[in-house]
């Protein structure tokens, strides 16, 4: 028997907005509220909002918090020199596979906020608790299911957020990209998953519906997981479980830039395995030149050997099919390759990621 | 609620079929199917002259989410395809019953009697 689907504090808002609901990692989540493509364009051109309460925020406190995170994560939290700064990082297993990708905010000297994926949240917490015991570290890890999270994204996302919550303006106006701040009841992070500017706002669960209604009144379009997927693909951002998982090295999935080896003294889980196994693949974007749609796990034929797509979709911004492909090292941006699309070999052009940034096509 | 016009026939695989006065069939996908697929972005339709058997996958409809086959409702020969819908795939979402996909000349006129009527299709998608 499957467990009953979990619902976020915004469930009734989704029903009111006539969402089409689907199961996502055990959560009943909106895939769209009508047209996925219109929601996609709303984020590229104006402002959209996503219920991301199914993701889990965790608070980490204690004198060993920094030392422990420097061992837990392949990226180095020592880079977070000022309070509020955020870091994207992979949490690896001892064989160098990706347990999860996450964002960590430094709140103060011994206090961090970590945001992990929904589908991996339970596994992540178990793993983290085990690592606390193994070090052992004087830290406290607190899952924050009492928070709801709304990601407001788009060129007008910040203005719309201030219209909805005027009290946040003073504290968040000068917030640099990839940083966050606690402002009264709200934790505001200037981060996102769409390639646009915006805020990810965490609020106490009992204030979530009011926050959603205020954003709606400020003209922000509700957007579902469908648009979230096309937007993140255009933005060149990996999706856990699709573009990487516990069996893949971050080096083979385009995440080598998140592995920080600068401090040779620093040991982190998975480091030995990564150093012993250099990258065998590179990740490039594909833009389909022929007509059709690219999907995950299509074979890619190149003069240097075969590769495979890991994610693919129709790009509403480019009006063409796009994909991420894991390819042999010899292939370069600008090369033409062939993709097996439902039994036909179609031509695709290799490009550097991302495809789109800040509303502009880059390919 | 999906629209299911009474004057059309249907298949369990979500094609609608209009029986034309000259004995030919016009085929499309139902409103229920387009709603489930989401935004349609690409169609691959069979060429005129192609001979198909009943239930044969003869066209592809792709939404942002996924690709789906479209099946021949009966055996016959494709006599026309709607190129204007391949140029504007979103017209399937706008009006699934106006956006026909191809026309078919049945091999045996009697084959159409096995197709579902509107009530039968409504029962089929009720679950």
Put the structure in a nutshell:
The complex is a heterodimer of chains A (363) and B (127). Chain A is α+β, with helices and mostly antiparallel strands and 363 residues long.
List the helices and strands and how they pair.
The complex is a heterodimer of chains A (363) and B (127).
Chain A: H1 11-16, E1 20-24, E2 27-32, H2 36-45, E3 48-51, E4 56-61, H3 65-72, E5 86-92, E6 98-108, E7 111-116, H4 121-134, E8 140-143, E9 147-153, H5 157-164, H6 169-172, E10 180-183, E11 186-189, E12 198-204, H7 208-217, E13 221-222, H8 225-234, H9 271-276, E14 282-288, E15 299-302, E16 305-315, E17 320-327, E18 336-341, E19 344-351, E20 356-357, E21 360-361
Parallel strand pairs in A: 3-13
Antiparallel strand pairs in A: 1-2, 3-9, 4-7, 4-8, 5-6, 6-7, 9-12, 10-11, 11-12, 14-17, 14-19, 15-16, 15-18, 16-17, 18-19, 20-21
Helix pairs in contact in A: 2-8, 5-7
Chain B: E1 9-10, E2 15-19, E3 25-29, H1 31-37, E4 40-44, E5 51-52, E6 57-63, E7 67-71, E8 76-81, H2 83-87, H3 91-94, E9 102-106, H4 118-124
Antiparallel strand pairs in B: 1-2, 2-3, 3-9, 4-6, 5-8, 6-7, 8-9
Listing every helix as H and every strand as E from the N terminus to the C terminus, the arrangement of chain A reads HEEHEEHEEEHEEHHEEEHEHHEEEEEEEE
Q: Looking at the structure, what is the overall shape of chain A?
A: globular
Read across the widest sheet of chain A, the strand sequence of neighbours is: 10-11-12-9-3-13
What is the CATH topology assignment of chain B? OB fold (Dihydrolipoamide Acetyltransferase, E2P)
* Overall number of domains of chain B: 1
The low-confidence parts of chain A are none
Q: Detail the poorly predicted runs of chain B.
A: none
Q: What's the Cα radius of gyration of chain B? A: 13 Å
Structural class of chain A: alpha+beta
Strand content of chain B: 25-35%
Which pair of chains forms the biggest interface, and how many residues does each contribute? A-B, 16 and 13 residues
CATH superfamily of chain B: RNA polymerase II/Efflux pump adaptor protein, barrel-sandwich hybrid domain
Mean pLDDT of chain A: 97
Give the overall form of chain B: globular
Number of helices of chain A: 9
User: What helical percentage do the residues of chain B reach?
Assistant: 10-25%
The rounded Rg of chain A comes to 20 Å
InterPro entries (chain B): 2-oxoA_DH_lipoyl-BS, Biotin_lipoyl, GCV_H, GCV_H/Fam206, GCV_H_sub, Single_hybrid_motif
Function (chain B): The glycine cleavage system catalyzes the degradation of glycine. The H protein shuttles the methylamine group of glycine from the P protein to the T protein.
Pfam family, one (chain B): GCV_H
Keywords (chain B): Lipoyl
């Amino acid at each position: 028997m499957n467990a009953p689907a979990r619902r976020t504090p915004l469930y009734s808002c989704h029903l009111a907005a006539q969402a089409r609901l689907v199961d996502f990692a055990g959560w009943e989540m909106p895939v769209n509220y009508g047209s996925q493509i219109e929601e996609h364009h709303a984020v590229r051109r104006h402002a959209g909002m996503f219920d991301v309460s199914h993701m889990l925020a965790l608070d980490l406190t204690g004198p060993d918090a920094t030392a422990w995170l420097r061992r837990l994560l392949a990226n180095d939290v020592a880079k977070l020199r000022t309070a509020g700064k955020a870091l994207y990082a992979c949490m690896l297993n001892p064989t160098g596979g990706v347990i999860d990708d996450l964002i960590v905010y430094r709140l103060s000297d011994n206090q961090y906020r970590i945001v992990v994926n929904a589908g991996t949240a339970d596994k992540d917490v178990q793993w983290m608790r085990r690592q606390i015991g193994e070090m052992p570290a004087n830290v406290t890890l607190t899952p924050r299911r009492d928070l709801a999270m709304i990601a407001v994204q788009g060129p007008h996302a910040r203005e719309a957020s201030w219209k909805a919550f005027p009290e946040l303006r003073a504290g968040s106006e000068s917030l640099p990209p990839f940083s966050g701040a606690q402002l009264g009841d709200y934790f505001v992070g200037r981060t996102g998953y769409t390639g646009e500017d915006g805020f990810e706002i965490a609020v106490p669960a009992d204030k979530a519906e009011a926050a959603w209604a205020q954003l709606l009144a400020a003209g922000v379009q509700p957007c579902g997981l469908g648009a979230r997927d096309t937007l993140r693909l255009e933005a060149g951002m990996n999706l856990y479980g699709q573009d990487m998982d516990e069996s893949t090295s971050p080096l083979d999935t385009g995440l080598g830039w998140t592995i920080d080896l600068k401090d040779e003294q620093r040991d982190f889980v998975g480091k030995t395995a990564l150093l012993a196994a250099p990258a065998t693949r590179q990740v490039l974007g594909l833009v389909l030149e022929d007509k059709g749609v690219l999907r995950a796990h299509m074979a890619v034929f190149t003069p240097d050997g075969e590769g495979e797509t890991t994610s693919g979709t129709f790009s509403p911004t480019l009006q063409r099919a796009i994909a991420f492909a894991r390819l042999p090292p010899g292939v370069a941006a600008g090369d033409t390759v062939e993709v097996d699309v439902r039994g036909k070999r179609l031509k695709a052009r290799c490009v550097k990621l991302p495809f789109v940034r800040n509303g502009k096509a880059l390919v | 609620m999906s629209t299911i016009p009474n004057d059309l026939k249907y298949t369990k695989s979500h094609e609608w079929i209009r029986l034309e006065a000259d004995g030919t069939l016009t085929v499309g996908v139902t409103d229920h199917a387009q709603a489930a697929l989401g935004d349609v972005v690409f169609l691959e339709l069979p060429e005129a002259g192609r001979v198909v058997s009943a239930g044969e996958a003869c066209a592809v409809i792709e939404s942002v989410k996924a690709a789906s086959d479209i099946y021949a409702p009966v055996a016959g020969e494709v006599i026309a395809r709607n190129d204007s819908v391949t140029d504007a795939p979103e017209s399937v979402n706008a009006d699934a019953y106006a956006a026909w996909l191809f026309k078919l000349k049945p091999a045996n006129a009697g084959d159409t009697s096995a197709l579902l009527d509107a009530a039968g299709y409504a029962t089929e998608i009720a679950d």
